[in-house]
Amino acid sequence: MGRIIRTIIRRVLVALLFPKRINDFINYARAIYSAMNGNPNFPNAAGRLAQLLTDVNQLASDEAGTKRRPPTATVTQRNISYEKAKRDLYSLRDNDVQPAADANPASAEATINSAAMATRKQASHTPRQDAVKLGKQAGSVICTGKVAGAHEWQQTPDGGVTIVNIDSTSGSKKTITGLTSAMRMAFRSRPILRKGRPSAWSQWLSIVVQ
Q1: pLDDT, tens digit (0-9, with 9 covering 90-100), for 71-102
Q2: What's residue 85's pLDDT?
Q3: CA-CA distance, 42 to 111, in Å (whole number)?
Q4: Residue 205 to residue 80: CA distance in whole angstroms
Q5: Which of 14, 16, 96, 175 could form a disulfide with 45 if both were Cys (CB 3.0 to 4.6 A apart)?
Q6: 9: pLDDT confidence band, cut at 50, 70 and 90?
Q7: How confident is the model at residue 1 (pLDDT cuts 50, 70, 90)?
Q8: Which residues touch 150 (CB under 8 Å, ≥6 apart)?
Q9: In what order do the strands lie in the sheet with 141-144?
Q10: Statement: residue 67 has pLDDT above 70
Q11: For helices 75-92 and 22-36, angle between their N-to-C axes, nearest 10 degrees
Q12: 53: Cβ contacts below 8 Å, ≥ 6 apart
């Protein structure tokens, strides 16, 4: 039987708490922009922050337009802008805030709070964990996500410098074949949530292929 490697480090996860009212959401998104703009914790976020500002300003304009008489924007236009702004915030969470928190676990909460985002601690009693083990065939591994349901997968041979996307699955288990024996590889996954919305990537789990 293959050797199972599990991560036992508790993570502090980033939570986005979207207000239900559009104007409250606009203020929420702008607060995140202000908190992250120029923040040294997120040195690579400038492009994503610029896109967020553009989309939030468009959302504010469209929302105001739906209230004018006659309207200068439709509810459909407003909703499209709303979804763009939400995607921008998910992108900042996944590409900037969560990686920064993972890089320094001791200060993870402070890092997340500095982005004006909320924290959600990973439960320590969860019996199922992300795992990778050797497959039955040479050059194969079996990856398992701790959350049930469809998953996206990635692999890296060099600690995340080169990242290769792997075909997604409808379940939480993935068998990967054709790997080079005696080479150390790392794998990670993220659940595909309802309506195709992405979640945060898991931590990398490494294994020496046999």
Answers
A1: 999 999 999 999 999 999 999 999 999 999 99
A2: 98
A3: 9
A4: 37
A5: 96
A6: low
A7: very low
A8: 168, 169, 170, 171, 191, 192
A9: 5-6, 131-134, 141-144, 173-176
A10: yes
A11: 30
A12: 33
**Worst-scoring range by mean pLDDT, 30-34, 188-192, 198-202?**
198-202
pTM summary value: 0.57
159 vs 20: CA distance, rounded Å? 39
pLDDT at 8: 47
> Are 96 and 44 spatial neighbours (Cβ–Cβ below 8 Å)?
yes
Classify residue 107 by burial, with Cβ atoms within 10 Å: 0-12, 13-18, 19+: middle
Biggest CA–CA distance in the chain, Å, is 70
Would you give the DSSP letter of residue 192?
Answer: B
Nearest to 184 by CA among 163, 165, 157: 157
| Strand-strand pairing, 131-134 and 5-6 | antiparallel
In what order do the strands lie in the sheet containing 151-156?
Answer: 164-169, 151-156, 184-191, 205-208
Contacts of 203 (CB under 8 A, 6+ apart): 7, 9, 11, 102, 130, 188
Give the three-class secondary structure for 35. Answer: helix
- Is 81 within 8 Å of 55 (Cβ atoms)? yes
